[in-house]
Amino acid sequence: MSQDPQTEPPHSPRRSPAALRRGARAAAIDLGSVLVALALTFLGLLAITFVIGRVVPIDPVVAVVGDRAPLAVYEKARAEMGLDRPLLVQFAAYVGHVARGDLGLSVSTGNTVAADLRRVFPATLEVATLGILIGVLLGVPMGVLAASRQGSLTDQLIRVVGLLGYAVPAFWLGLVGLAVFYAHYRWVSGPGRIDVYFDGAVEARTGLLLIDSLLAGDIEVFGNALSHILLPAAVLGFFSLAYIGRMTRSFMLDQLSQEFITTARVKGVPEWRVIWRHAFKPIRVPLITVVGLSYAGLLEGSVMIETIFAWPGIGNYLTTALLNADMNAVLGSTLVVGAIFIGINKMSDLLYRLLDPRAR
């Protein structure tokens, strides 16, 4: 018999207007709490960067006028920079400038810090993204394999790899990688993002050189850029897979000890299905947080790698700014990296709640 289209099916009752209003009100409150938490966290980040700029033993006025400038010139520059005003007034002005996207002028480059960061950040984003892809694609299967073969030689070898990821210094691994794969075998290109004669060969549409070269259809530029990025991305990916693999193994061991896994095995469920369908599925949610934190760590912690590989990203920019006592650039870079970390962390929380109804 055909069902009357005007009749609501018994299993999907229509929600009353009051229930809809309550749901909308709860969603609005939830969104408001998220926005307030983000605003307060970002304000705390602003306060930290402001304090750092005032307590470091670097005089931003001297960085502008030089250490041999007359006292009158020094005092005039100090007043123009607003450093003669009370700290609370300076902080309020600092918050206002940041809210307008004004991070000050870089002494090193002569450009605004915001313009410099827009120029260098895509390079960091590109190498960190490739690094986290390597970390996830290798770290997760390694962690699952180690947990499924706990105590075996395979488990021991994977745990040693993870231990090396924590113990080996980044600068040492980068230098060894350059010496072996670039200087000796010539399997990859050397420092830098691209060879000089390819610089500017493709239009910078996204700032991500691999994507821009593909959009331009220039395979030669893509190959050269890929050859340059492989080694620094592999080094970052190694440290990432060590963390992700270790956490995946820990999560999987906890799941494999549960009673429902034993029940599935007693019922004769194939082992691959027990591992990937029954044990791995519940750990996907906490793994999102692990991957998010690892990705944020690559974005903010690639200073040493970018310096070693002469990678023109935010880490290299920050190092140059520190050496030149360019406090506007230092604080602007720190603020952007902190904001990214906050954003990725909050995004991980939102994905956590979307995938796990218990967290809603």
TrEMBL record:
Domain ABC transmembrane type-1, chain residue ranges per copy: 121-352
UniProt-listed InterPro entries: BPD_transp_1_N, MetI-like, MetI-like_sf
Molecular function GO labels: dipeptide transmembrane transporter activity
GO (cellular component) term, any one: plasma membrane
Pfam families given in the database record: BPD_transp_1, BPD_transp_1_N
Compartments (UniProt record): Cell membrane
Source domain of life: Bacteria
Membrane-related topology note: Multi-pass membrane protein
Transmembrane segments: 31-52, 127-148, 160-183, 225-244, 285-305, 325-344
Membrane listed as a keyword: yes
CDD domains, alphabetized: TM_PBP2
Keywords: Cell membrane, Membrane, Transmembrane, Transmembrane helix, Transport
UniProt record similarity statement: Belongs to the binding-protein-dependent transport system permease family.
Descriptive protein name: Peptide/nickel transport system permease protein
Organism whose genome encodes this protein: Ancylobacter tetraedralis
